[in-house]
Write a sequence for this structure.
């Protein structure tokens, strides 16, 4: 029988581990920087494939593909660094409490989605770097295979953020878009 998630208490009220004054500014800035960098990866991913083939199979490559391919490496490595810093910030400093207006099942779905987003956005660039350093197709295939799961998670995440804002009317989106912090 599936677990009744509504019976599991959501970590809602302010308590130990939750920051009373919202996300750190660093976390908010890195969140939106990663959004921009993932958008760049969407544009330059085909050029990275061309650069990989040119480097390890000796194919010709255009100047545009070479520049965009290197942009893929630089932006992807920046995503790895940003997600690692966010994870450390999150573990050491914490996050704002979930709004009590949000149903427990929605909170647990959000927690699962966030956890998987961290995992994919750390694993994907790490596998990309391994593919680039070793030239092995097996790493490149694993790297590429994570793209569709990432898109699914992002779709779920964005729908979740909009539902929180428009349906549950919580402060989640305002917290993630504001650099102003309440005094502690
Ligand atoms: C989160 C960051 C990253 C994302 C979302 C991402 C996404 C992708 C995607 C979707 C492809 C497939 C391209 C296609 O089939 O047209 C690809 C290819 C590739 N990426 Fe990344 N990438 C990231 C970071 C990196 C990093 C840091 C490197 C390091 C060098 C890298 C190296 C590669 C390589 C070598 C390929 C070619 C694989 C092949 O031709 O089979 N990626 N990337
Ligand atoms: C590449 C795209 C995105 C990625 C990788 C991403 C990733 C994440 C992650 C991992 C968290 C959890 C933070 C934590 O618990 O430490 C988060 C939180 C959040 N994101 Fe995103 N996000 C993306 C796009 C967006 C977009 C487009 C929106 C707005 C529509 C958004 C709104 C939010 C909000 C409101 C939160 C806080 C949720 C809460 O308080 O429970 N994100 N994001």
């Amino acid at each position: 029988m599936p677990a009744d998630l509504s019976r599991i208490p959501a970590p809602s009220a302010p308590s130990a581990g939750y920051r009373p004054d919202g996300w750190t500014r660093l976390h908010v800035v890195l969140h939106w920087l990663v959004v921009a960098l993932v958008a760049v990866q969407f544009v330059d991913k085909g050029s990275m494939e061309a650069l990989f083939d040119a480097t390890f199979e000796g194919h010709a490559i255009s100047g545009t593909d070479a520049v965009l391919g290197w942009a893929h490496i630089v932006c992807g490595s920046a995503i790895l660094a940003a997600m690692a810093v966010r994870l450390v910030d999150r573990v050491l400093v914490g996050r704002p409490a979930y709004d009590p207006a949000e149903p427990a099942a929605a909170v647990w779905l959000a927690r699962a989605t966030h956890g998987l987003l961290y995992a994919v956005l750390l694993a994907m660039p790490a596998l990309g770097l391994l593919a680039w350093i070793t030239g092995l197709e097996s790493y490149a295939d694993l790297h590429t295979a994570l793209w569709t799961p990432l898109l699914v998670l992002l779709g779920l995440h964005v729908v979740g953020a909009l539902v929180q804002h428009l349906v549950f009317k919580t402060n989640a989106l305002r917290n993630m878009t504001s650099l102003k912090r309440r005094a502690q």
